[in-house]
Design a protein that fits this description.
This protein has 17 helices and 10 strands. The protein is α/β, with parallel strands linked by helices and 465 residues long. β8, α10 and β9 form a beta-alpha-beta unit.
């Protein structure tokens, strides 16, 4: 017996009929002024979306497998302690390890002791650029069947610090040497693009996508013009993405990123997909009423999963003012475990496909980002625009606009610019300095500075304690 389609009993309602009904219920209030709002990206959001809104849109097909890994970020300043943290995290549900390697003083055997590397993908963030360091890791990992992502990002370092590691020519030569070594291994990736830094510095989503794409294109251009290497075997590339609190927009942002990458890569003959490593933003995290950070990061991790991230790692609710601690790390990891194992988000990216609102947002973000990307390329490319200061200026303009909305209360962070608890005291609890650190130094270009929205307000509250 065939099950009847219950919706056949109801007449179809067109988008025009919905709008007429809404206008009637508004009782004279203006539809556009009352119900349509405009995002920081210039996208006008309607109160409802209809199948008619996606009739002429290109459809983005999410990757075949959308299973994601729970990442565990670990700072490897002390390799033995980092190893203990890693083993404990894996026992408690972590599925991928995200190490930050601060210097060249290595003890790799201690770092990986007791860890079955065949089971857990590795992400290695290096704070230095040294091919000897990479060589040591490669020698240790030889013969071990694991996926390894070496997060090397010369341009990201330039944008963040204002300087190359050494200079443009030497840095790129080292990168080519590293690629020559890594290309002999399967399942190893060399490059990453830190879109996260643009987000944490105040760039809107269109800028994040366009700058990330132009940033990646600099690497594609370089390797396509280098005789000793091929752009086809240096990728997949890893995009590191910070996810904010605009829930549906962030889902669409990650989908648009993968779509844009596929479009760009195709022009270079690259068929491999990108790897998206996503994590919550720092920009909306707060010192006061810090427990609310758990709610913010949970929502942001949900957006990352539904947007199709490959690896998601969370941050502790107290990370901006506390040193790494077992309790904070455990809570952050458990948020992801709850999403994956108890909320059935293990394959969540497929849930976002076909939804009228998200499909519309994905299309608009991708189109606007592509227009901006083409403008950057026609002006000489991303590096050229960085050297001219145009990227920094545009991010500042976006950040200032967002900061103004926060200061006026139009962007709300509960417990900070609304519903403050006057009894909160934080001065004696701070183990880390949670504000922008100012350090006078000579730079090649103006650096892009990450800054939280609540910083100035928090500084004043600390002074008033």
């Amino acid at each position: 017996m065939n099950s009847p389609n219950l919706f056949n009993e109801f007449p179809q309602v067109s988008s025009k009929q919905w709008k007429q009904k809404i206008q009637y219920d508004l009782k004279g209030a203006d539809y556009n002024e009352t119900l349509i709002w405009e995002s920081l990206e210039g996208i006008k959001v309607k109160p409802y979306y209809h199948s008619e809104d996606v009739e002429n849109l290109k459809s983005f097909q999410q990757k075949g497998s959308s299973e994601w890994k729970i990442g565990q970020p670990i700072y490897a300043g002390n390799f033995s302690l980092a190893n203990k943290t890693a083993i404990d995290s894996l026992k408690r549900g972590a599925e991928s390890l995200v190490f930050t390697i601060p210097d060249q003083d290595l003890d790799i055997a201690s770092l990986f002791q007791g860890i079955d590397l065949s089971k857990y993908p590795l992400h290695l963030n290096f704070e230095t650029l040294d091919k000897n360091v990479i060589q040591e890791f490669l020698e240790f990992l030889k013969g071990k069947s694991t996926s390894v992502f070496f997060h090397l990002d010369l341009i990201g370092h330039l944008g963040k610090t204002g300087n190359w590691y050494q200079n443009l020519e030497k840095d790129h030569q080292i990168l080519e040497d590293i690629h020559a070594m890594v290309s002999k291994f399967d399942n190893f990736s060399v490059l990453s693009v830190a879109i996260s830094h643009y987000q944490n510095s105040g760039a809107n989503m269109v800028q994040q996508l366009a700058y990330g794409l132009a940033h990646a294109n600099e690497y594609l251009n370089h390797f396509s013009n280098t005789a000793s290497t091929s752009s086809k075997n240096i990728f997949p590339i890893t995009f590191k993405v910070s996810v904010g609190s605009n829930y549906f927009f962030e889902i669409a942002k990650l989908r648009a990123l993968r779509w844009l990458w596929q479009t760009l890569a195709k022009n270079y003959g690259i068929t491999s997909d990108c790897h998206v490593l996503a994590f919550p933003t720092q920009r909306n995290k707060t010192l006061y009423d810090y427990n609310v950070n758990m709610l913010r990061s949970t929502s942001e991790c949900m957006s990352a999963v539904l947007g199709g991230a490959d690896t998601v790692h969370n941050q502790a609710y107290d990370a901006i003012y506390h040193k790494d601690n077992e309790f904070g790390d455990r809570i952050a990891r458990n948020q992801l475990l709850l999403l994956k194992d108890e909320s059935y988000f293990g394959n969540g990216a497929k849930a976002a496909g076909g939804t009228y609102y998200i499909e519309s947002l994905t299309q608009q973000l991708a189109e606007k980002a592509l227009v901006l990307f083409k403008q950057i390329e026609s002006s000489g490319g991303f590096l050229s625009e960085l050297k001219k200061g145009n990227i920094q200026r545009k991010i500042k303009e976006s950040a200032d606009k967002e900061q103004g909305l926060f200061n006026d209360g139009n962007i709300v962070l509960l417990g900070t610019n609304k519903f403050q608890n006057p009894q909160d005291r934080m001065k004696d609890d701070m183990e880390l300095y949670p504000f922008v650190k100012k350090q006078a130094r000579k730079t090649l270009i103006e650096p892009i500075i990450a800054r939280r929205l609540a910083e100035q307000m928090e500084i004043k509250r600390l002074d008033d304690e």
